[in-house]
Amino acid sequence: MTPELHQFRFSHFNEKARWALDFKGVPHVRRSYLPGPHMLPITRLSGQRQVPVLRVGREIVVGSDRIIDYLETRHPAPRLYPPSEGAHRRALELQQWFDAEIGPTIRRAFFFDFLVDGDYAARAFTQGQGMALATIYRALFPVTRVIMRRDMQIDADGAARGRDRAREALDLIARTAGTDGYLVGEQFSVADLTAAALLSPTVFPPECPAGVPEPRAPGLRTWLARWADHPAVAWINRIYARHRGRSVERAA
Question: Can you identify the CATH homologous superfamily of domain 4-80?
Answer without folding.
Answer: Glutaredoxin (3.40.30.10)
